[in-house]
């Protein structure tokens, strides 16, 4: 409504809009305010306000013509529970700032504010006194916001504290000029913590802070004991100037109920738990934290997770899951006193880090080879750690009696396994005496349900007299880098009769299971031909196949091969970073069970499949295609005269990061998608039509532009919507 300048008439009847419960104002270009004061008394039932995309809107409430008597009373919306303000570029205040009237929202529970770039603060301190029921506060992308609460000078005693009694969820994101949650003056500058002594959240359970590039400090050093004592989840991401999360032991004790911490993409962060200055020699009870999950990712300057030497005063005995990814300067994970306290740790992932030791010895705290760390560990992944020398100093092999999944890859200074019968050389491959092994193969293998085997491990295993392993159901076969390396079909077919998930990664295989359907014609590691009467019985349980970083793979299968037969029983197929692959499904095969197909980061991929091949995907439920720069279309013509292709069960389709994609298909075939209800089209700049032929998508009503786009776009049909998005 481009010409609308005013919503309410000044002479409305007193009962007008008395039962109005929800009000949405959207795309009103000339509207300067939503409410005038004389409309407030009529809206006693209003429980939801939403204002979206009104570029002239400056204030939400504009009081006018109020008598001196009425000015002493607050303007009250007693039923208002939800307030949403989105993309209001000129909004500078909720209520006209020079007005002496106070607003009151005694039932307000949820506030969402995004894209209000002229707003200097959200609430005045006077308003917060009547926000007792506020439970959710989400504020993002407001470039001029300097404080959430403006502490009015002369009206606030420095000894008083703002308490948000019911606030349980707080999200602050992309607020580049935010100085502090509570701002004494909008002219304030200098280093201030985001939260200081003026605010308490006694019932907050979840907090997310993101894209705050000026934030250097989250908490005041000496927080009140109950300021955040019920906080359970803390997420911090994209805060470039933040150097630490918890600056002292005393601060840590204020967060003993935290159950999950996630810190990602903070370029200056050096330490998470800074306890170096605390004197643990003084008599003090041990503090046990409730922390169960710790995630630290893409922190290039992080040197310590725990700094200093806690030495028993600080325990993390409830921690169950820890993930550390892309932390180049991190040399070790745990001080040994912290590691000894982690008796409940079940899952540990360390990926692409500079780690040399998992556990480091502290001064005055000795370790020996008999120490048992992480007795309940069931899932261990150590991936791409070229500097890893040992699990801990003086250890030869680790002992985790409950270990079920073990993934060790590209830990160049360590071997995954030691074997009872060690060979100094095998077929020209030598094993260094100085290269320590993480585990004894004979001790851990009987319990493992999932593992990674490198080419060297397979060599040693095939030298043993018996290598049939009935427990593993997940296997990652990796690092066959030799030129013209043969695919070890025989090893897989004989050794893992109960395999359900097979991943092939970082290898030079040109073909996978190249034998014919009877198991003839292939080669083992030593060149013997495979000879199995019923090879498919050996893989009868296999339902998921992952192909990752197979640089020489030019085709997934060839007609008549054992691989073609295996694919008939696969339910999920993932293909990623196979740089020589130009098409995934070149010829018809019967996919009797395939429900999910994901292809990503395949630089040479031009098509996913031919028309003839795609007709067999009758059970496919989801299809995801990402980051394939050369992909021109999904379905290409093979000249076999296919006139109609139906995907009767396909529900989810994602096309993301495909800069050369022009359409789903250039053919004139009729395409039927009777079950398709969710489609994402993102970063496909050349796509200007979905398909040229007839197209049926009877239950599709939106095209989403990202995973976070919930509203979507729709111009009546899929082809028209794609055309509209391309303009």
Label this structure with key terms.
51 strands, 28% strand, mainly beta, flat, 23-stranded parallel beta sheet, 727 residues, three-stranded parallel beta sheet, 9% helix
Structure, described:
It is built from 12 helices and 51 strands. With 727 residues, the protein is mostly beta strands. Among the domains are: 76 residues, no CATH class; 122 residues; 143 residues. The strands form 12 sheets. The chain has a 23-stranded parallel beta sheet. Strand 40, helix 10 and strand 41 form a beta-alpha-beta unit. The two termini are 24 Å apart. The relative contact order is 0.03.
Percent of residues in beta strands: 25-35%
What best-fitting shape do the alpha-carbon axes yield? flat
Structural class: mainly beta
Rounded Rg: 31 Å
Q: Let me know the average pLDDT.
A: 84
Sheet with the most strands? 23 strands, parallel
The helix tally amounts to 12
Number of strands: 51
Quaternary organization: single chain
Which regions contain 5 or more consecutive residues with pLDDT less than 50? 423-433, 522-533
What proportion of the residues is helical, as a percent range? Answer: under 10%
Q: Note the gap between the termini.
A: 24 Å
Per-chain topology:
Layout (H helix, E strand, L loop, with lengths): L21 E5 L6 E4 H4 L7 E5 L6 E4 L5 H4 L3 E2 L5 E5 L6 E3 L7 E2 L5 E5 L6 E4 H4 L7 E5 L6 E4 L11 E2 L5 E5 L6 E4 L15 E2 L5 E5 L22 E5 L6 E3 L2 H4 L7 E5 L6 E4 L12 E2 L4 E5 L6 E4 L6 E2 L5 E5 L6 E4 H6 L5 E5 L5 E4 L18 E5 L6 E3 L12 E5 L4 E5 L6 E2 L2 E2 L5 E5 H4 L5 E5 H8 L11 E5 L10 H7 L5 E7 L27 H4 L5 E7 L11 H6 L4 E5 L6 E3 L10 E5 L6 E4 H4 L7 E5 L8 E2 L7 E3 L5 E5 L13 E3 L5 E5 L12 E2 L21 H9 L1
Parallel strand pairs: 1-3, 2-4, 3-6, 4-7, 5-8, 6-9, 9-11, 10-12, 11-14, 12-15, 13-16, 14-17, 17-18, 18-20, 19-21, 20-23, 21-24, 22-25, 23-26, 26-28, 27-29, 28-30, 29-31, 30-32, 32-37, 33-36, 37-38, 38-39, 39-40, 40-41, 41-43, 42-44, 43-45, 44-46, 45-48, 47-49, 48-50, 49-51
Antiparallel strand pairs: 34-35
